[in-house]
Amino acid sequence: MLQAPIGVTYDYLLGYHSGQRLVKFSTSLSEVEVKAIGGRRWRKANEAIRVDRTEFTLGVMDGYHDEVAGTAHPLPVESEEY
To answer: What is the CA angle 50-64-25, rounded to 5?
Structure first.
C-alpha cells in the first residue's frame, strides 16, 4: 500500500506516480499536453475508484516534471498484484 506523506492526499500521490510513468513515453511534452493526459488518466482511474480530479491532475503534472528533472521520488516496485 502506498504511504502518503503528511499533507499529501492519496489522489495526488496516485497522480504523481502516473506522471512519473508518463516520462517513459515522452520527455518533451508541453504543460498543456501533460494536463490533458492527466485528465484522461484521471477518467480511467475514476472508473475503478473515486479520485479527486484536481489533486490527481496536479500530481500527474508534478510527477512528470520531477521525473524529467531527475528530482522525483523513486517509483514503487511493480507488483503482479496490481
So the answer is: 100
Record the cell numbers describing residue 25, joined without a space: 513515453
Cα–Cα dist 68/57, whole Å: 17
Condensed to tens digits (0 to 9), the pLDDT of residues 2-43 reads 565 667 888 898 899 899 989 988 889 999 999 999 999 999
What grid cell was written down for 6? 503528511
Contact assessment for residue 12 and residue 38, using Cβ atoms and an 8 Å cutoff = no
Whether this prediction's pTM lies above 0.90 is answered by no
**Which stretches of the chain are DSSP H helices?**
10-22, 31-48, 53-69
